[in-house]
Structures are given as structure tokens and as C-alpha cells.
Design goal:
This protein has about 260 residues and is α/β, with parallel strands linked by helices. The chain is built from ten helices and eight strands. It has an eight-stranded mixed beta sheet, sandwiched between helices. One of its GO terms (biological process) is thiamine diphosphate biosynthetic process.
Length: about 260
Amino acid sequence: MGDHVRAVWESVQKVRTGQPLVHNITNYVVMNTTANALLALGAAPAMVHAAEEVEEFVAIASSLVINIGTLSSPWITAMRLCATRANELDKPWVLDPVGVGATPLRTRVSDQLAQIGPTVIRANASEVLALAAVSSKHTRGVDSTDPSQAAIEPARQLAQTYKCVVVVSGAVDYVTDGDKLLAVRNGHPMMTRVTGLGCTASALVGAFLAVEPDPLVAAAHAMAVIGVAGEIAGARSAGPGSLQMNLLDALYQLDEAALARVRIA
């Protein structure tokens, strides 16, 4: 556990020193939250969505995060262009297939983006099951109706199919490259009462991908960091409203002592 604590702390320091520019094509609901979380940790966020400029912008960014929460035809075009260009430039990128399986449009767009080749896919268990075309309960909106453990094997399959890392978020977060599997046991139950914290996790994965060459390590460290920040914020908060504020403060104040809470195995 001590090795994981030191490694996560080193990753945090790399983000703060390097201040990676994270290009986000994300949903209207979470833009402010994810931008502030990236800033609090030490990264630099950019919310750039226009198809006319995304290819140029990803060229100057350190990493890319694509989140399909609020889809529209122009954004779908921008997502495809940007993901393709990121791969051409060898820029790491994250796919957050919000609500995949809920509608044919979401399923189709998620599948098309996955086929372009993300570095990391981060999703809840129901979304992983839907994306892996594994029989699941009905996916509704962005909430998971399945425990994260139920998606471990489908996540492995996805990782092998798309040659990427897959993160299954839940009470326990599972991170796999199709071979290795890491479990991250950090977080607070109140986090499920605040919209967009899964999307925030995806944004933080983007920041860590910019400074860590191993996507498995980057993803696990990002999930541990938001989990630890959530634990600290949860202990300070009377409810979901104050949790949002305290989470940003926890990310900003995060130090090696706080990261002693990290539980990665």
C-alpha cells in the first residue's frame, strides 16, 4: 500500500508541475464542475466543441476527454474528428459513453467512438455491459443499475477488443487493460448524490494520462485521487451541496499525508 501511496503522490505532483492542458468535449451539465476540478488539481481545462476548431485545438492539448452526456449532431461530428486527430497525433484520450444502451443514438455513437480507439474508456457497470453487448438490466440515463463487479469480465473483453484500458466505476472501481486488473476502494456514498462526479473522474483520468505513460497506472491513480478527495469532502459535508465545494477544496489541498487513504490492489 505504501508503494501505491507514493506512486499516486508522484502522479499528483506531475500534474501540478506540468499543468497539462486537457481538451474536453463534454456535456452541458458538468462543464463547470469538471473544469474547476481540473483547475483545483493543477491541470488546465479547455472546453472546445466546435467541429471547425477541435482538430487544431487537440494538436496543442496534452490529452482529450470525450463525454457524450448531451449529444447533438454537431458535437457528434466534432467528437469523431477530434478523436481521429488525437490518434493521428498520438495524444491520449478518454471516452465516457454516458448512458450507452439507453437509446440507439447513444449506443451507435459510443460504438463508433470506441472503434476509433480511445486510450481509456471510463463508464459505470451498466454502460460497460451495454458497450460490451452483454445482457444487462435496462440502462437508464447515467445511473448504474449493476454493481461494478458484474462488469469485470465484460470490461476485460472491451479492453482486449479495443486495445485500451477500461475503468468500471462504482463502490469499488475496477481498472483493466484486458490482462491486469486493479481495484480502487476509495470514495464516499454521498458522491452518488452529486451529478457529474463520474464525468469529473473521466476528466481527471485525462489529466493523469497526460503525465503517466502507462494508461493503467494513470487511470487507477485518477480514480484513487477523486475517491480520496470524496472521502475527505464527505467527512466535512452536511449534504451534497457542500460536498461539491469541499471536493474542490480537497483536490486543491491534497498532499501525501491525505493520500495515505489510497487503497489500490
